[in-house]
């Protein structure tokens, strides 16, 4: 046993924002304490931020409760201020004190330092954060010394090809720091997901601005495959990257990977603390007062799952208050949560509610009470009486519902309201909304007095991204529902479980085949994200049959063709696909002739198409070739594979009168939302620059005021809440969103026709607008895009106003499948 | 074409073509069978009927201009209107001719008739262009917009200006002329081919190409470079001129069709007033 250095009431391990704030409170309360810091300075994580980094104080609405000051500012100003505050409060700081073990229990903890010295404490506050344990790359070639997980000073690097991996705040800030034009670095940021959902708004905006200014580039939905030597015959290094559009090779002199960090689990577990689950990113189990499963040992800050400085500092303050007996102290967000449960029939405290919801709702099992608080602030609670409507079939909605108490009934048959399937308490529904801005597939009513938790799409995605257990459970439920959809409600529970246990999530790159024609296999594939193209090899050519969007399935047909694949299925864009083992289906179907019959009925339509093509395969002519090449042009080059409703122009009829544009401007405050002439053409089909109302609208990715919605007719529109930030314009890959101010009102059409007053039909030119603005009036620029003329009788003006019939609106699944031609 | 739909001529299975033919045949039959006391003319009951129908039709046909520009709510389709405009307008050739009873002379009545025929024939020209030009235009412009083309020409001019700096004064002058004196708009009455031949860019390109043969080694490379830019510009000019010509063809006929319609309307009023005055 080492030398006993000190005996205190509270030992605080880690001097980051959480630990420092705790020490500050302890000092202010006059409690005996010690703040142990591994390094030679306070707050190592912040200290290691890149020089001059601007630190934000989100979330803004949360009040700061700490003896240590904190407001947004540069890294240096914040560190200086903390040093001063720590000294002023006379906190007892021990630098260079690396705690290697914590033993004991409440009242009798012993902390062993690396030096062998010992500190005795009644309570321990663990605030070591997670930065000591960064997630690392595991790809081949990444063991190079220039693959680093931290960036101290971006100014050290000149004229390098730098690849930053990870689009979190750290990655974005590093990329921006390195992209300083004076340093001549070529910076590319790789981000795994589509967009930057976990990063701060201001960072994302700065990133887009830097890209638009040509200072750096970023690739979303991209991940590193390997690093290898061999750029242009020399010993240069290249990073081989998997992107949405296939493999890319980027020269690289340096890789900075910012992949987040995981709790130093071994160390924490050695003290006896339990975690919420086995995943690497799981957090310790904590009470609402931050007490771990070891009484007297408290855990706060990033280690408890809170990466934001303000949260950490509040926790540091609060935990010392709890230890000193102030157990009535409520977290700063408690009044907001109390408001949420105000209408509840039962009276419970906020903590009781959180635990009640967590223990009732299966998918939330792994969520810590602290994370519960966070996402509940974004959610809504509904109390429904028996028979009350919850969601209506064909309504647009993207939130997920969790049944806390009670149960609901799903009307599975649109024609017969009495046919319902129950969903019991503890389950979720509406999860298809996560896949896209899809319509609700069924009407759901409360079956008894029911308490529902409605979680918005973004909050759910964030929760899934930060708690792997939630993601896993959500995915299992979606797969289960999908299996139910394929086989009706025919499979016994046991079989469903068996299928789910055998299910496997696979990732396919653009162009990769899931299923090859002629193979023998009966696996069924559910498309979780992306979309796939079905092709058949006929007369030496691949003929396009249909394309299938996320949320649907392929491959079930082989069950009825003795396991023979009758077509090839390829990923149209990068897609995530769940494979369900076919052997189980085969067995189930052969055991149960009734099931076979019913399933056969379910897939009859697809079978008919298949048989039709088989019958006609000799007679397929150039018409089919044409169909295939046009389909490829529209789907693959023009991005119509994600469209739901797009304007297309037949160039054999278009006389270029631009009446479509004029009509658009005239029904929409004078701004045309389409550019007829721009855009690509193929075989006289022209796809102008105009909104396609994507299945998964890119523009919705990051709208700060949440102003973009999907309307009742499936149109994606922007409402008056638009603040003109331009995010949607940057996210749209088709360039269909403009930032424009509403022009002044034009004189009437008659006065133009009769007397030539005003600029005439269509969008007025810039000079006219400038001349006719009143005084210094400068209306704000807002995002303008097609709304499919929603609410205007007669429908889209562009089509109605086309004199020759060249303009038409199509939805690709209507046109791009041979089924249509077969029925003609 | 896999995305199949109807253009304005085939609108709703040629609904208005059928209507127009039906109307014309009916008028011809009635004309043939009608027992009018004197020789047929505008003053008989049949003449009045045909005249009234024709006059109302003319006014309605002219309303297309309003319909096109007043984008009101409702289930109308401009394509349908255009289709009706084309076929019912053509049927006037029958209805109004029968209305005249084949009596023509040097008077305001025949003037109105003549204008009407002119307007209809100019409409036929328009249909011809509408049916043939869009395809050509689409092929020629190959995804480029007119402003793309003009911008590309400007970019080539900048490139030319830079590339021509090392050249002799003589050739530099040619290039400068090619930059300054190239007229893009093709004009109406010359073939694109001739314009292309006479264009300052083509001429400069030809002269410089000749000069390459006699140039010394140091000059050859810059000359070849400039010529290649000039040739690119000439090709682009050809495309742009064709585009402008195509656009002109699609609009030009309207400059006859529309003003003459108004002239027709005036003459029609004079015709009607005079008929009632001098009854």
Explain what this protein looks like in three dimensions:
The complex is a heterodimer of chains A (824) and B (279). Chain A has 824 residues and is α+β, with helices and mostly antiparallel strands. Chain A has 25 helices and 41 strands. In chain A, a hairpin with a 4-residue loop joins strand 7 (108-113) and strand 8. In chain A, helix 4 (169-178) runs parallel beside helix 5, helix 12 crosses helix 13 (468-486) and helix 15 (582-591) crosses helix 16. Mean pLDDT of chain A is 83; it is low at 817-824. Chain B is 78% helix and 0% strand. Chain B is elongated, with a radius of gyration of 28 Å. The termini of chain B are far apart. Chain A binds chain B through residues 623, 626-627, 630-631, 648, 650-657, 659, 662-663, 666-667, 677-681, 683-686, 749, 753, 760-761, 792-795, 797, 799-806, 808, 810, 815, 821, and chain B through 1-3, 5-8, 11, 65-66, 68-71, 73-79, 81-82, 130, 133-135, 137-138, 142-143, 145-146, 247, 250.
Characteristic terms for this protein:
heterodimer; A: alpha+beta; 7-stranded mixed sheet; 5-stranded parallel sheet; 25 helices; disordered C terminus; B: 279 residues; mainly alpha; 78% helix
């Amino acid at each position: 046993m080492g030398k006993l250095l000190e005996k205190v009431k509270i030992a605080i391990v880690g001097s980051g924002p959480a630990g420092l704030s705790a020490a500050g409170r302890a000092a202010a309360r006059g409690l005996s304490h010690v703040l142990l810091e591994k390094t030679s300075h306070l707050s190592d994580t912040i200290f290691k931020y890149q020089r001059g980094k601007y630190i934000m104080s989100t979330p803004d609405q949360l009040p700061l409760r700490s003896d240590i000051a904190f407001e947004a500012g540069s890294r240096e100003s914040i560190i200086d201020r903390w040093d001063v505050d720590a000294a002023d409060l006379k906190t007892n700081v021990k630098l260079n004190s690396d705690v290697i073990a914590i033993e004991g229990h409440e009242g009798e903890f012993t902390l062993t330092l690396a030096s062998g010295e010992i500190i005795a404490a009644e309570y321990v506050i663990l605030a070591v954060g997670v930065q000591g344990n960064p997630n690392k790359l595991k790809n081949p070639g990444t063991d190079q010394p220039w693959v680093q997980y931290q960036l101290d000073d971006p100014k050290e690097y000149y004229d390098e090809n730098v690849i930053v991996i990870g689009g979190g705040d750290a990655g974005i800030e590093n990329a921006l720091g390195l992209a300083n034009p004076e340093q001549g670095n070529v910076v590319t940021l790789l981000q795994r997901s589509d967009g930057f959902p976990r990063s701060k708004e201001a960072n994302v905006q700065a990133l887009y601005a830097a890209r638009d200014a040509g200072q750096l580039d970023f690739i979303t939905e991209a991940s590193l495959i390997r690093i290898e030597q061999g750029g242009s015959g020399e010993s240069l290094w290249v990073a081989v990257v998997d992107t949405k559009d296939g493999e890319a090779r980027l020269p690289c002199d340096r890789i900075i990977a910012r992949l987040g960090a995981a709790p130093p689990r071994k160390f924490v577990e050695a003290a006896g603390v339990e975690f919420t689950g086995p995943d690497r990113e799981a957090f310790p189990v904590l009470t609402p007062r931050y007490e771990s499963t070891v009484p007297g040992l408290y855990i706060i800050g990033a280690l408890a799952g809170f990466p934001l400085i303000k949260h950490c500092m509040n926790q540091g303050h609060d935990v010392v208050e709890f230890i000193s007996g102030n157990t009535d102290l409520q977290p700063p967000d408690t009044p907001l949560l109390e408001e949420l449960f105000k209408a509840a029939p039962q009276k419970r405290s906020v903590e009781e509610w959180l635990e009640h919801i967590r223990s009732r709702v299966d998918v939330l099992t792994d969520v810590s009470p602290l994370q519960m608080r966070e996402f509940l602030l974004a959610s809504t609670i509904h109390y429904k009486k028996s028979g009350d409507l919850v969601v209506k079939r064909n309504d647009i909605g993207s939130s997920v519902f969790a049944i806390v108490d009670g149960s609901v009934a799903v009307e599975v048959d649109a024609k017969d309201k009495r046919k319902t399937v129950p969903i019991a308490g503890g389950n979720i529904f509406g999860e298809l909304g996560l896949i896209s801005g899809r319509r609700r597939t069924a009407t759901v009513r409360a079956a008894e007095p029911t308490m529902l938790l409605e979680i918005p799409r973004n909050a759910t995605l964030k929760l899934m991204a930060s708690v792997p257990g939630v993601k896993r459970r959500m995915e299992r439920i979606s797969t289960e529902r999908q299996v139910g959809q394929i086989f009706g409600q025919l499979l016994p529970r046991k079989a469903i479980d068996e299928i789910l246990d055998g299910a496997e999530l696979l990732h396919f790159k653009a162009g990769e085949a899931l299923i090859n024609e002629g193979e023998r296999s009966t696996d069924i594939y559910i498309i979780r994200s992306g979309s796939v193209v079905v092709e058949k090899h006929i007369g030496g050519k691949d003929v396009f049959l249909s394309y299938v969007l996320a949320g649907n399935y392929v491959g079930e047909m082989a069950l009825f063709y003795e396991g023979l694949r009758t077509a090839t299925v390829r990923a149209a864009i990068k897609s995530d696909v769940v494979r369900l083992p076919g052997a189980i289906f085969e067995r189930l179907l052969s055991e149960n002739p009734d099931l076979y019959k019913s399933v056969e009925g379910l897939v009859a339509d697809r079978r008919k198409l298949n048989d039709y093509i088989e019958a006609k395969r000799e007679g397929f002519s150039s018409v089919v070739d044409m169909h295939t090449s046009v389909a490829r042009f529209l789907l693959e080059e023009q991005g119509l594979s994600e469209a739901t409703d797009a304007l297309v122009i037949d160039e054999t009829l278009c006389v270029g009168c631009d009446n479509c544009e004029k009509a658009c401007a005239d029904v929409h405050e004078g701004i045309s939302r389409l550019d007829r002439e721009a855009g690509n053409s193929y075989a006289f089909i022209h796809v102008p620059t105009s909104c396609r109302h994507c299945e998964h609208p890119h523009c919705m990715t990051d709208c700060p005021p949440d102003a973009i919605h999907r309307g009742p007719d499936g149109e994606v529109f922007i409402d008056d809440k638009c603040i003109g930030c331009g995010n949607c314009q940057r996210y749209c890959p088709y360039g269909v969103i403009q930032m424009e101010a509403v022009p002044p009102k034009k004189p009437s059409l008659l006065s133009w026709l009769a007397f030539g007053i005003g600029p005439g039909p269509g969008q007025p030119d810039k000079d006219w607008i400038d001349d006719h603005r009143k005084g210094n009036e400068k209306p704000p620029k807002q995002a303008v895009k097609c709304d499919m003329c929603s609410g205007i009788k007669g429908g889209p003006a562009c089509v109605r106003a086309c004199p020759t019939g060249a303009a038409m609106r199509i939805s690709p699944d209507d046109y791009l499948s041979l089924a249509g031609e077969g029925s003609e | 074409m896999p995305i199949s739909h109807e253009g304005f001529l085939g609108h709703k299975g040629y609904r208005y073509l059928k209507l127009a033919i039906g109307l014309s045949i009916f008028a011809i039959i009635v004309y043939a069978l009608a027992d009018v006391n004197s020789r047929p003319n505008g003053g008989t009951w049949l003449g009045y009927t045909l005249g009234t129908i024709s006059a109302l039709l003319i006014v309605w046909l002219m309303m297309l201009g309003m319909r096109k520009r007043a984008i009101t709510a409702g289930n109308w389709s401009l394509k349908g209107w255009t289709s009706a405009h084309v076929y019912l307008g053509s049927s006037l050739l029958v209805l109004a001719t029968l209305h005249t009873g084949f009596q023509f002379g040097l008077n305001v009545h025949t003037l109105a008739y003549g204008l009407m025929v002119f307007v209809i024939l100019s409409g036929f020209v328009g249909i011809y262009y509408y049916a043939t030009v869009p395809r050509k235009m689409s092929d020629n412009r190959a995804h480029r917009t007119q402003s793309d083309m003009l911008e590309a020409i400007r970019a080539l001019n900048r490139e030319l200006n830079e590339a021509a700096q090392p050249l002799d004064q003589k050739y530099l002058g040619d290039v400068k002329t090619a930059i300054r004196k190239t007229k893009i708009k093709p004009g109406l009455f010359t073939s694109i081919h001739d314009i292309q031949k006479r264009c300052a860019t083509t001429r400069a390109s030809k002269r410089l190409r000749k000069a390459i043969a006699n140039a010394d080694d140091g000059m050859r490379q810059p000359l070849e470079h400039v010529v290649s830019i000039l040739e690119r510009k000439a090709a682009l000019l050809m495309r742009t001129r064709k585009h402008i010509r195509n656009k002109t063809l699609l609009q030009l006929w309207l400059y006859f069709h529309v003003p003459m319609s108004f002239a027709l309307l005036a003459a029609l009023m004079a015709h009607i007033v005079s008929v009632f005055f001098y009854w």
